[in-house]
Amino acid sequence: MSNGETAAHGEHGAPGDAHGAHAEPASFSFDEASEAQIATILKRYPAGKQASAVIPLLYVVQKQMGRQTGSTWVPRVGMDAVAERLGMAPIRVYEVATFYFMFNTKPVGRYHLQVCGTTPCWLRGSDEVLRACKDAGKLKGYGDTSEDELFTLSEVECMGACVNAPMIAVDDDYYEDLDYDRTVRLIESLRRGVRPPPGSTTGRQTSAPEGGPLVLTEIPHYDVAAAPAAGKAEE
Amino acid sequence: MAKVTVDGIEVEVPNGSSVIQACEAAGKEIPRFCYHERLSVAGNCRMCLVEVEKVPKPVSSCSYPVADGMVVKTDSPMARNGRRGVMEFLLINHPLDCPICDQGGECDLQDEAVAYGADHSRYMEEKRAVKEKHWGPLVKTVMTRCIQCTRCIRFATEIAGVPELGATNRGENMEVGTYVEKALTTELSGNLIDLCPVGALTSRPYAFVTRPWELRKTDSVDVLDAVGASIRVDARGPEILRVLPRTNEAVNEEWLADRSRFAPVDAQKRRRLDRPWVKRDGALKQAEWVDAFKAIADRLKGVSGERIGAVAGDLVDAESVVALKDLMTALGSANLDCRQDGAAINPVRREFYTFNTTIAGIEEADALLIIGSNPRLEAPVLNARIRKRSLLGKFPIGVIGEKADLTYGYTHLGDGPGAIGNLGDFAEVLSKAERPMLILGRGALARPDGAAILGATWRLAESSGMLEEGWNGFNLLHRFGGQVGALDLGFVPGAGPGGGKDLADMLDGGVDVLWLLGADEFDVSRIPAGTFVIYQGHHGDRAAARADVILPGATYLEKDATYVNTEGRVQRGRLAVHPPGEAREDWRIIRAASELLGHKLSYDDLAGVRRRLAAVNPVFGTVATLARRGWADTAAPGNGGALDDTPFAPTPANYWQVGTIGRASPTMAECAATYLPAAAPSLAAE
Q1: ipTM value
Q2: Which of B509, B510, B513, B511 is nearest to B300 (CA)?
Q3: Residues A9, B181: C-beta atoms closer than 8 Å
Q4: Closest to B30 measured CA to CA, from B69, B1, B60, B8
Q5: Residue B467, Cα to own-chain centre: how many angstroms?
Q6: Is the pLDDT of residue B618 over 70?
Q7: A94:B169 CB<8 A
Q8: Which stretches of chain B sit within 8 Å of chain A by CB?
Q9: Arithmetic mean of pLDDT over chain B
Q10: pLDDT over threshold 70, residue B87
Q11: What is the mean pLDDT of residues B473-477?
């Protein structure tokens, strides 16, 4: 039994399935742009504490993979490169990379659709947004990558944009105030290779009320004489 | 010191102790899964909850420091309910496969579930299942059973020094493993099996073999490396089923190297010599004991003593060595040798060939020089002790010889003996150190200039302050558990005019009759064709094929015998199972032969041999303990000619298939095939 297992297991690369063109690369080396970022990042940490830079460096790997292959993910060889650069045991990097789901340890599509399903978004109709993503992106569900390798669908927890719920994050960009139709339009636009400007899709000014600000619309007159004196403020 | 009251018992523990240590000092046993005395504190299993007065919630006692005046309750409703809750959570994902689990009967989780488990589960949802992992030929994994205590991760990282295990993913999906599937590259992997509190890591060779309560347990001592680890041999009927370490703080703490743990189990039944054989008409034929002795007596008739020689092997016990030496002396022969590797060991004084600092003494040293040795492969448990000391810091290590991964950092000072006299900056490191030590590998002496290397190393020890009253930093690291005992008994060529021949001379036609006591580690093909070879041993290995008479002996687990480890610590092994078939304890074979050869030995029971041992060398009078050795008399072991700057030969990378027992073990063969795929020698036909 054990002999067979030895033979069968020894050949494996990283866990996870190789996905079409986005297969596990045979090697990874930092390109020029990444090296420049790494030099900046490493300066933040005192000598001998370079291992603290593991998370920023994993982002560097992920971004570089995005630039080079169109899929922002961290292959195992990329984790090894980080381990070597920081003088860590590779397993310590694997632990970090697999713990945080911001690191994709499997290849993703060109656009990573991260749908927020946490309570405020859900109350405001995130189910419709999800349905739109599935329909327009031709995705079966969370974790799926479309056949054209353009979209990967993920469920995320609160991204802190509840005020304009529901929202999705496409890679690093937030798109807020979505409904079914606007989500479909967003995805169709992405499919054409056009990233719409991030933020509210209804034209809302940042997090102001719909239709424009209702308060602080003018600068009020400030009466200096009526203001409490500095020393009496606490009484 | 802090005064702590545990369940009404007042104890004093050092400041900085944890509550669990205070509880242990008070004799209260606290259930635990993740906490282990020799590993860092993780505090993640939460099983060790206790109540501390004035603390509103139960606290995990392993990670909670004591304070003066603290009142701890280990058995209060709060503590018990806390533990019950933890147990319920642990059992949510733990499979109920105890009936087919090898840990059954010695499982911490099983035991604690009896005390803190509920009679039924409230959990109706789906249980978690984890994909099987492959960690090599020794450790079997059933990771669905894992309760994520992370003991194995901490052992691999901290003790073994191979950070290959980790916890990947998070939450319910957290898995303990290597992420990239690979066999663990440590010689201490068997200890993971002992550490695992559940059945997630079990012994692969021992899988589905037996239940612990069916085993007969015998305390004994290991000889497959020179550490002489304390072991417990578990046997059922005539079969040895497993070997486990016993705690011995002075020697192995509670670890055991893989060869010592796995090799003797399946080697016990393979390639054994279980009856005497005598060569007749050019072929070995099965024989009775009396025929074998007669064949020896016939051949010895008329042969003068100086044409007879004897060689002792690496795994021999002191009793058989002294018996063979007495027999040879009675036959008029001084041709004795126990140094099959030809190591230029100077047996004149014990300090020249033992690990004088002692293994526990490594922790007191503050600088180390390793010469011509790879302790990781030669004595993995001792290497773990060096690593332990190294992790405490302020322990510069220099290495002369092979540049190997020793699991700790070191400065490489050179490849050959030339570096001994030219240490560069490291000379200053040694002279500044208060308790410097050096480890000289036995392999470094097994070369033509071995005597010169020994002399130069001793002088280096002397000049760098390693030889002082109360501290002896000169250490020779042997490779097997029988080597020091034979040296202690003076199983070396006799001195004086026309003295005895050493192994090289014996192989150059110096003798007509050669008695090999478990000696397989030299080139057997060098024995001249006309030499009559008597092989006494337990495995049909290299030398047995060349023998004219084979006397079947017992392995170290099959006899009550005395061994001396590399420190010079005299230890007693005990009979765990009887030798197979006609095989007998070795000293009894020699005693029986002596009678037929007309030179009856003066002792005929074990107590008699042991009295004889103590008479030959008083060190055999003290068992298990070892006096601390300082050194005032720094007379060197001789100059021995010029140094040759050929690099030291690296220790063979095949750690597993070493010695007759290692070579006979299929498990060890599988290890070699896994870890050394290029150079895996296949098992010879049985």
Answers
A1: 0.89
A2: B513
A3: yes
A4: B60
A5: 27
A6: yes
A7: no
A8: 134, 137, 157, 163-170, 178-181, 183, 204, 670, 674
A9: 93
A10: yes
A11: 95
Residues contacting B26, CB < 8 A, separation 6+: B4, B6, B7, B9, B11
Q: Which of B179, B202, B670 to mutate to test the interface with A (most CBs of A within 10 A)?
A: B179
> What φ, ψ does residue B373 adopt, rounded to 5°?
-145, 150
Quote the CA–CA distance of B323 and A62 in Å, as a whole number. 71
Taking only the tens of pLDDT, chain A with its 235 residues reads: 333 333 333 333 333 444 445 678 999 999 999 999 999 999 999 998 999 999 999 999 999 999 999 999 999 999 999 999 999 999 999 999 999 989 999 999 999 999 999 999 999 999 999 999 999 999 999 999 999 999 999 999 999 999 999 999 999 999 999 999 999 999 999 999 999 999 999 988 888 888 888 888 887 777 777 666 555 444 4
**B2-93: what fold?**
Ubiquitin-like (UB roll) (3.10.20)
Which residue from A minimizes the CA distance to B131?
A: A15
* Listed residue (B438, B508, B430) closest to B474, CA to CA: B438
What is the pTM (predicted TM-score) of this model?
Answer: 0.90
The closest CB to that of B674, out of A6, A91, A92, belongs to A6
Domains and CATH numbers, chain A: 20-99 (1.10.10), 111-200 (3.40.30.10)
Which of these, B630, B634, B633, B355, lies nearest to B471 by C-alpha position? B630
Question: For residues B261 and B248, is the Cβ–Cβ distance under 8 A?
Answer: no
CATH for B356-477, options being 3.40.228.10, 3.30.70.20, 3.40.50.9100, 3.40.605.10: 3.40.228.10
∠ Cα B622 B623 B625 (to 5°): 85
- What value, to the nearest 5°, has the Cα angle with vertex B223 and ends B220 and B226? 125
Inspect the interface and report whether the beta carbons of A89 and B170 lie closer than 8 Å. no
A160 touches chain B (CB under 8 A): no
Partners of B674 on chain A (C-beta within 8 Å) are: 6
Q: Is the dihedral of CA A25, A30, A33, A34 positive or negative?
A: positive
B35–chain A nearest CA distance, Å = 21
* Confidence class for position B632, pLDDT limits 50, 70, 90: low
The pLDDT score that the predictor gives to residue B498 is 65
Answer whether A217 touches B (CB < 8 Å). no
Q: Rounded distance, CA B181 to CA A11, Å? A: 9
Give the lowest-confidence range in A216-230, B20-34, B155-169, B481-495.
A216-230
Q: Which of B484-498, B535-549, B592-606 has the lowest mean pLDDT?
A: B484-498
Burial readout B110-137 (b: 16 or more C-beta within 10 A, e: otherwise): bebbeebbeeeeeeeeeeeebeebbbbb
Per CB-CB distance under 8 Å, the chain A contacts of B169 are 98-99
CA–CA–CA angle B136, B142, B148 (5° rounding): 105
In chain B, domain spans: 2-93, 123-208, 277-345+483-621, 356-477
- Please report which residue ranges of chain A form alpha helices under DSSP H: 2-10, 32-42, 54-69, 76-86, 90-99, 119-123, 126-137, 180-191
Instruction: Provide the CA A232 distance to its chain's centre, in angstroms.
Output: 49
| Collapsed DSSP state (helix, strand, coil) of residue B272 | strand
B182: closest CA among A90, A98, A99? A90
Task: Assess contact for A188 and A179: CB atoms under 8 A.
Answer: no
Question: Across the interface, which of B163, B167, B183 has its CB nearest the CB of A89?
Answer: B163
Give domain B123-208's CATH architecture.
2-Layer Sandwich (3.30)
Nearest CA-CA distance, residue B164 and chain A, Å: 6
Q: What is the CATH number of domain B277-345+483-621?
A: 3.40.50.740
Q: Do A94 and B168 touch (CB under 8 A)?
A: yes
The identity of residue B471, as a single letter, is W
